[in-house]
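User: ok so my PI wants both of these folded by tonight, can you help

Assistant: No problem, let's get them done. Here's the first:
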Amino acid sequence: MTLNDACCNTPPTNAEWEPRGSEKVLATKINGHERKVYRTGPKDSKRGIIAVHDPLGFHPTSLQVYDLVAESHGGFQLAAPHIFPQGGALPESLLGSLPDILAWLKDNGDFKRDHIHDVILAAVEDLRADGCTTFSIFGQCWGAYISVLAASQPGSIFLAAGGPHPSFMTIENVKDVNCPLILLASKDEADMIPVIESVRHKNFPVESFQKRFDNVPHGWCGSRGDWSDPEAYKAGLEVVHLLGEYFAKVAKVVENEE
């Protein structure tokens, strides 16, 4: 499984959203460089979320999802780091060419070599410094795959991983995950049930979850999302609810053990 046609051919939308959060510089430099993170949500929450943008970077609907998830189900402090250096993103000129997109991701989006894992860990520490004690991670499209990689590392502290319209989501790619998954596919992704079933034997305290939205296209909760469309808006709000509900549930398990 790789990127689907809708992911390769669909440009970002001109959606409108006034961000409720703000950007800050992470305390930890990555490979000698300062990196920024978008922070949103109530500052008194002890529940942290890391969000990983899709390859096209930050766009209004992506930020809308982050803001609304952060405000849901009692509130979370959410950190969405600029994953690529200097706030970069996949050039829109590459859309329409799967080989070129995959080559760009190979050159710019390697989890370890391009310090993506380091950026995520620095964002976690930023949240921890502001009082967070539990952490989940999600992403859109390729970002969902990155969230699973982060949650598959030895000693991972993430309580859940996944996200909407996930790419590269295969049984092989989730085999080492250390937490339950929440996968919210659009009409353009493959069936996520086999992926979810493949991790059930791990007996996580909260069951993995999947839901398919057959009335919306890939990217509707990220850079390609246009929530002026009533169907996309309705489905988007359901994704916000499901993510917030799930992340609150996994956090509560840990809080009840303390």
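One down. Here's the second:
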Amino acid sequence: MTEAHRLIHITPETHDVDIDLVYATDRNLTGKPIYKAAHCLLLTPAEAALHKAVAIAKTVGMKLRIFDAYRPPQAQQVLWDFLPDPNYIADLGLGSNHSRGTAIDLTLLDANGNEIDMGTGFDAMTIESEHFHPGLPEHVQRNRLLLLGVMHAAGFTHIKSEWWHYELPGSRSLRLIDNSESGPLRLM
């Protein structure tokens, strides 16, 4: 694997982030753990962009909480089998940018370590999860725009359907990274 395609471990100590990998718990849309161990990994360029996002969030007294990063194709299959809806789960034929190590699901924490109100929870596969869903309270719109600004300024882009999902532009041109190459991340 070349340096540009190397998965980097993301930890609170090395990246000054909070990590809550929900797919290693039963607190995800499937209701059961998908990963055996909670290892947060990103491809080298995504990891570099994360450093920028952390620094930008700090300028407004916020911290990032990561819900998911690299996701093996096998985990993507588990999610697709549970919810085969291309509006929310990447079509297996295209593959997920999570499985390329270039996508990250996250939110912002305030100075007290509390998640700011984004209107829906992570993995709420509803229309209200769209970035610019009309009718959400003003403070929710402001919070989503704050996260959007942090992540765009760091070099990530968003998808319409999930306020928590960001990825590097042009990621579809990269190959999927198989679970066997990632080492410590294993499926249940």
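DSSP finds five helices and seven strands in the chain. The first strand starts at residue 7 and ends at 9. Good luck tonight!
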